[in-house]
Design brief:
Strand content: 35-45%
Radius of gyration: 16 Å
Strand order of the largest sheet: 1-4-7-10
Oligomer: single chain
Order of helices and strands: HHHEEEEEEEEEEEE
Number of helices: 3
Mean pLDDT: 82
Number of strands: 12
Low-confidence stretches: none
Distance between the termini: 50 Å
Largest sheet: 4 strands, mixed
Length: about 140
């Protein structure tokens, strides 16, 4: 069995997903003159688009669009305690297009082309007690 060097690298730096966007970024990154780790981090952060994924956590999933926008489409999120999604001052976080966000006590289903968008520090949290909190 052969090993994929990109997948091996992602696992080494703590990214356990091999989404197409990250592979594309790493392939482009290889052809830069004198690239740095900061350049790679900036490319990955500014281009986060989760599409058609299944993300599970034992306790908490948290997305913070701090240095770039995050778009979540056609993706299933599942955590036992809570799921938190927030934007920062100059970013946005979009969740929708047939995505689900489910905890043991609550679920958010964005069917069809519906979306929930947080901008400029806004966000929402599916709480352990089953409530959903919105922040602006």
């Amino acid at each position: 069995m052969t090993s994929d060097p990109i997948t091996d690298f992602l696992i080494q730096i703590g990214i356990n997903t091999t989404s197409g966007v990250i592979h594309d970024i790493l392939n482009r990154f290889r052809f830069r003159n004198n690239p740095t780790t900061d350049d790679l981090r900036e490319d990955i952060i500014s281009s986060l688009n989760l599409q058609g994924m299944e993300i599970k956590a034992d306790k908490i999933i948290e997305f913070l669009a701090q240095n770039g926008n995050i778009t979540i489409t056609g993706t299933d999120l599942s955590a036992n305690e809570s799921i938190n999604m927030f934007s920062a001052k100059n970013t946005s976080l979009s969740f929708g297009d047939d995505s689900t966000s489910k905890t043991e006590t609550t679920a958010v289903n964005a069917k069809g082309d519906s979306q929930i968008v947080a901008k400029g520090g806004a966000g929402w949290k599916q709480n352990k007690d089953g409530s959903i909190s919105f922040y602006t």
